[in-house]
Amino acid sequence: MKALTLTAAAAVIALTACSGAYAASEWKKMDTAAGEVFADDNGMTLYTFRNDTPGVSNCYDSCADAWPPFIADAGATDKGAWTLVTRTDGSQQWALGGMPLYFWAGDAAPGDVTGDGVGGVWDAARPADKAKAPATTAGTGYTY
User: What's the pTM value of the predicted model, to 2 decimals?
Assistant: First the structure.
């Protein structure tokens, strides 16, 4: 019984540690081989997905396994161009200029930008992106 209790406690600790691996409320600018990008407080590069729309994440299931969302800490609030998007599970994901932000599972170390350009739909989030909140004209599908 004691061994079972210790095993269960270890599992809870491990799951808690893993579940918070991509949750944060801080970000920073970093100089990388691909130029200046935004990263989380651990230096891991943040990315945007061209198949998302402002305020809506379209990356779930196997997509989110490869591109974990940048989940906000509980109680986080919008900060200028940095806003929150509600995911289908109710969690809050950080967005820049309305576009949800992600990590790339292929980045192994702080400052890596190996996800930039993947599939022609993933881009490293850059400081210039703050001003790019796309506006869509109803009915046209065009963005300005």
Answer: 0.75
Average pLDDT over residues 97-109: 97
Which residues contact residue 74 at a Cβ distance below 8 angstroms, ignoring those fewer than 6 apart?
none
Q: For residue range 61-71, what is the model confidence (pLDDT) as tens digits?
A: 999 999 999 99
- Residue 124 structural domain: 21-131
Do the bridges between strand 27-32 and strand 35-40 make them parallel or antiparallel, or are there none, so unpaired? antiparallel
Q: Give the number of residues written for the chain.
A: 144
Per the domain annotation, does 84 fall within a domain? yes
Three-state SS string over the chain comes to CHHHHHHHHHHHHHHHHHHCCCEECCEEEEEECCEEEEEECCCCECEEECCCECCECCCCCHHHHHCCECEECCCCCCECCEEEEECCCCCEEEEECCEECECCCCCCCCCCCCCCCHHHCEEECCHHHHHCCCCECCCCCCEC
Q: How far is CA 104 from the centre of its chain?
A: 9
Any domain includes 144: no
